[in-house]
Every structure is written in structure tokens, then in C-alpha cells.
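Pilot study result, target chain (285 residues):
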Amino acid sequence: MTNAPSVPEIKAQELLDQYDCLLIDAYGVLIHRDGPIQHAAAFIDALNAQNKPYVILTNDASRSAQSASDNLKSKGFSIEPEHVITSGSLVVPYFQENNLQGAKCYVFGPQKSHDLVTQAGGIVIDPKEDDEVDVVIAMDDAGFDFLTMIEDVLSAVFRRLDAGHKVQFLVPNPDLIYQKNEREVGLTAGSIALIIEEALHVRYYDEAPTFLKLGKPHHYIYEQALKKTKTRNMAMIGDQIRTDILGANKFGIASILVATGLTQLRSGHVPEEQRPDFLLHSLAL
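Predicted structure:
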């Protein structure tokens, strides 16, 4: 265990000087739900002006790269889709790699999440109307009646598994909570997956299936970033030690914790694997 205050500080300009590419989280680093974080838009403008390679690496599973780009542009950021990897967009290569085209899917999330699964080749079905599910995908926390959807999916999945069929479980965004604004937090799809996993464990004990996680801190999203950037001299700038920082450390790249988001390392101890390489108090250049 390592004492958090011993983490060294770094300035935004030093990041540009030291690393070939920057991986940047969106929520808590660039934006809150209420809008842009101070200095964030100017930081992105500087990256663009210097032709500095960067990727917005976000666990937002409700958006494609194009949709995320459009959303960020609406908030004042000049970020093109080629600079974005969302955890939701990872469903497409995952379905291709695992021959899941044509799989019947229960999808937690709004219509945009359904569209991503359809783009990947999945067939979105209603748990009230069709028990023959192949894949359960927790994409997002919005766009459905929370309790009703969880109960309907669990009931249908229990019937499917009890009949001897296999069901895969997928969560692109394994985050449990996120920063809505300076005063509020919200639940994310990772919390939905956690509820379902606990229910499956109650019924099936050690034989209970679990969710495969695609987003940070797991390797799959970092591997996609590496394919895009073609360099390991990258730094991940994020606001959560359990996703952004842990993922970067496990993947072997620099980890930078910002002070504008969810995790505040004011006191106490942090496990070594979750310890950031640097603390960044502001994106101001």
C-alpha cells in the first residue's frame, strides 16, 4: 500500500512534451453533465494546433465515435470521430471476432445503444416477448425503466439457463458510478451488471455466468487504442483510479489522475496497482 500524497504532480504542458500520444477520458476530465470543465476546451485546441496525437478513451457505451464527437462538439470541443474510442463502439469488433452476428440480445440502454448492437450484427429483442436470448448487454443506465427491465431480463435469463441454454453477458462500460457535476454522482451500466451477477450467483452459485468487461480498466479498449496510435509512449489522463488509472498501469502506460473528477486523493492509502504516476490539478497550459 502506498500513501496517496506521495504521488508527484505534473503540469499539462509537461504531458505534451513527454508523451507521443495522450489518451483522455471524457467525463470528469473534459466535461461534467452540466458542461465543459474549465480549461479543457483550450487544452484540446492546443493539441489540435500542434497536431499532437490524442484519443478520447471513454467508457460511454451509449454512443458511437461519431455520436460522441457530435456531443463533444456541441459542448465546445473541436474533436473529430477519428480521435474517439467509446466502449460502446467496441461491441462491433467484439461481435466480429466472436462470430456473434445474428445473436439475439437483451440491451440495457437507449435507442443509440440498440443501434450500436444492431450495427454489430446483433438482434435486439424484448425480454417480455422472447426468451431465446443469446447475449445480455448492459450498455447504459438510461432509456428504460430501471427496476422493470432488470426484473424482466433476470426472469427471462433464469428460464433460458434453467432450460440448459448458454447465455453470454457483456458490459462495455464496467464503471459503477460517474460524476454528474461537482455535487452529484450517478450509477452506470457496471452497477446494472453487478446487480445481475449477484442475482445469478444466488441462483447458480459457483456456476453462475459473469459479465465480460470491454472498457477501462480492461485490456480490450487499450488494445484498440494501441492499434490506432501505434505507440506505447502514451499517457492516460483520467479521474477514476479503478478504471482509468488501474487500466493504464496494467497495460504498461503512464497514468495521470486529474483533480477535476470523481477520485480525490487527499488522504489515506491507495493500492500500488491503482496508484497514478502523476497528479494533474488542471488542464491549463
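One observation from the pilot: The first strand starts at residue 2 and ends at 3. A full batch analysis is planned for the follow-on phase.
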